[in-house]
Amino acid sequence: MSESEVSNLLDRVKLHYQHLSLSDELLEEWFRVLKKYNSDEVFNNLDKYLMIEKNRDRIPNPFDLTDGLITENQKEKLKNDYLIDCNLCHKTMLLSEYNSTHYKKCLLIKALIRKLAKEGTKVTYQDLDNYSYERLDKLYDKYLEKNKKIRIEGIRKLC
Question: Tell me, what's the pLDDT at 10?
Fold first, then answer.
């Protein structure tokens, strides 16, 4: 939204809520929040807001008018991206996020859960999802190193 569109929006709000006092500071703050959004969509949300009975005595704030909207940048991103569900953890995310970081981390978490379960340690996906990929990778390397030593010692005992 442009600054003039935000000004027009505030004028429209003022028509419905006469006790609203308009100021340069108010305009600046509303513009700061609303500049990322499409003006037609914000005006439509104002229309919806005004139609709700309980809102008759409550002046809308910019966040009321952007509820359910996505920014112009997010729209641009979605043109080249789309939502998918991870086949491992069933989370919904953008394809770009899935390809860039999620899939590798998800595979690592699933592998760690299986390995730790064999040792009798019970962990959940959520427990491990809080860790960064780098930390999970180090945990997996430690697990492999520990099991490598155990296998070598077992072979030595057999010989």
Answer: 97
